[in-house]
Amino acid sequence: MTYQVIEEDGFKYIEAGKGETLVLLHGLMGELSNWEQVIERFKDRYHVVIPILPIYDLPILTLGVKALSRYLHRFLKFKSLNQVVLIGNSLGGHVGLVFTVAHQEFVKALVLTGSSGLYENAFGGSFPRRESYDYIKEKVEFTFYDPATATKELVDDVFKTVNDRSRVIRILTMAKSAIRHNMSKELSKITIPISLIWGKNDKVTPPEVAQEFHELLPNSELNWVDQCGHAPMMEQPEIFNNYLEKFLDRILLK
């Protein structure tokens, strides 16, 4: 990515543009580059901010979805941001949901894509063959509809991460926290506008998960992206961005 990571007061983040603030939340194995097409599309009209969630930095005994939500709260206060649009993929969506339940006054709207919080079929409870590059490649390809989206660079990054013992322990701790933290009984509390933008071929958080989110979130819309897996903003960025733009125009440009 061409954007510089800013480090201030214990926070790391990228930001670009001016206007209403969009806060992009990456997933468990997500990179900032996952959002590159979103930044490019919206930086001329919006203030786009991507905090790096401290999955590898927080004390492991407190690591979990709620800890990341508290971190997001501290970050927004540090940046003096209010009434933001939270846009989260996978674990990032889950963090956005937990934060919104606790601090709905900070959030104008929420966008979820492949969000955890109800059910996910991820790596599971372990990486039984993490030393095998082909096994990791297969697992990364599982995330997408088109296996070619799992570039060598992406697979290399995941392979390096899961073969770092400290990091893999944190990833598994975080994944277990997300699975345990089912939000089905809390979603009715969220009354702000929500856009669900979901891959029709998502095998990690399948289409029925999106349907359940839609039924449980009282002010939600559901948009399908065909020939797309768990990360629509990466695999079908133009379609994702078109849905996002229509939603933002509706809620912000009234």
TrEMBL record:
SUPFAM superfamilies: alpha/beta-Hydrolases. The keyword Hydrolase applies. It comes from Pedobacter petrophilus. Pfam families: Abhydrolase_6. Keywords: Hydrolase. GO terms for molecular function: hydrolase activity. This is Alpha/beta fold hydrolase. InterPro entries: AB_hydrolase_1, AB_hydrolase_fold. Residues 22-240 form the AB hydrolase-1 domain. The keyword Hydrolase applies.
